[in-house]
Amino acid sequence: MENYNEIVKKQREFFLEGKTKSLAYRMQALRLLREIIKLNEKSLMDALKEDLNKNPFESYMSEIGMLLGEISFTLKHLKKWSEPRRVKATMAQFGSKSVIYPEPYGVTLIISPWNYPFQLAFAPLIGAIAAGNCSIIKPSELTPITAKLIGDLISQSFPEEYITVIQGGVETSQALLKEKFDYIFFTGSVAVGKVIMEAAAKTLTPVTLELGGKSPCIVHKDANLPLAAKRIAWGKFINAGQTCVAPDYIYAHSEVKEEFLQYLIQSIKALYSEDVLLKGEFTRIVSKKHFERLTGFLSEDKIHYGGRYESSSLMIEPTILDNVTWDDFVMKDEIFGPILPVLSYEDTSNMINTITERPKPLALYIFSENKAFQNRVLDGISFGGGCINDTIFHLSSPYLPFGGVGESGVGAYHGKGSFDTFTHEKSILKQTTRFDLPLRYPNRKNALETLKRLLK
């Protein structure tokens, strides 16, 4: 039976030495991480190609480039983020100073998924390093080439008592969760997220859960339809739809639905060739299990465009489903593949109510030129984050914390959000000894009346 007590113990001992809390140590580690990525760009692209058939452009944009930008942003701001900051004190604390000290949690566990196997392993690691923690990374076994490369790069560059990678499957994750960590960061499915939270609850370990859900894409009747179709096609079919914030389904206004579908097909054809499967230029589905689940959604009477697939290569071409209802199997859970159902609405209130009756989505996208409509949707629906007149791009901004709400996740990261996630804010009140306010003591005359007046 797997046991990771020794490595956790070794990391905790190293953390207690205090080296990782040094700003210079953290910045040096981030610079080294950046250098590792730059020097191994070709190897990373090759690994992603072998695991998922990702092309170099997509690999750099969605995995490598995002991380380099995140590291640069963190290095630029880390000194300021790390400094103790003074906050106001109330009149009741006259004579004192109130200060918040950012401090790392300690030993952190990062469990990363297969859909962006490099980016989603290193993005939380950037926050963990920046905050001063030690980290154990458990990459996905479903992308073994990338996972091995991650392990090699980390082991060649960092001591295992600081950062280490542990390979393995479900049993490995279960064994790791039996250890006492100071923070757990998980990216993956809702089902596994519940398992992570249950395990963390036994030791009262704080968690960040980056999950998913059915993210709606609303196309209102006043939308710029050609541009909406282009941006939706890009956001949905990048990485073959295996993106946690991909538009899961379209909710198009009935007045423009048919016209929008024409533009959507045109956009898909512009992005991908007709023989995308024969050329093998599309990202593959990660496993046979996921492939079979997705092809089960392809009912002939629902296919509006596409629908072809190749079992030997685990590829499914970009597909649009029409005449879909909420009773269809494809609308029960997150799709996580290149299949896009289209529903229609007429009444805005009914559309909003239909979405809010279901689990809160990780993302939501609104295509409309009407600010009143935009605000009505934003105010009426709870979701993690999203875009107006675009898709996916919100997660690339270091100024926007990224995370879910409800069943779509707990906590957020990116930019300062990553630093904050892996940081405990220690609140300290520094009291003067030059004088002592008597009103705090109950033996003072009229103590209660004075206290009430002061605290009003």
Give a verbal description of the structure.
The chain is α/β, with parallel strands linked by helices and 456 residues long. The protein folds into two domains: 5-211 and 410-428, Aldehyde Dehydrogenase, Chain A, domain 1 (3-Layer(aba) Sandwich), CATH 3.40.605; 216-403, Aldehyde Dehydrogenase, Chain A, domain 2 (3-Layer(aba) Sandwich). Helix content is 42%, strand content 18%. It contains 16 helices and 20 strands. The protein has helices at residues 5-16, 23-39, 41-52, 56-82, 119-131, 144-157, 170-177, 190-202, 225-237, 257-271, 276-279, 288-295, 348-356, 371-380, 416-421, 447-455, and strands at 85-87, 97-104, 107-111, 134-138, 163-165, 183-187, 207-210, 216-219, 249-253, 303-305, 309-310, 315-316, 319-321, 339-345, 363-367, 385-388, 402-403, 409-410, 412-413, 423-430. The chain has a seven-stranded mixed sheet. A six-stranded mixed sheet has the order 5-4-3-6-7-18, sandwiched between helices. The protein is globular, with a radius of gyration of 25 Å. The mean pLDDT is 95. One of its GO terms (molecular function) is aldehyde dehydrogenase (NAD+) activity.
Short description:
This protein is of the alpha/beta class and 456 residues long.
Which key terms come to mind for this protein?
single chain; 456 residues; alpha/beta; Aldehyde Dehydrogenase, Chain A, domain 1; Aldehyde Dehydrogenase, Chain A, domain 2; 2 domains; seven-stranded mixed sheet; six-stranded mixed sheet; 20 strands; 42% helix; globular; aldehyde dehydrogenase (NAD+) activity
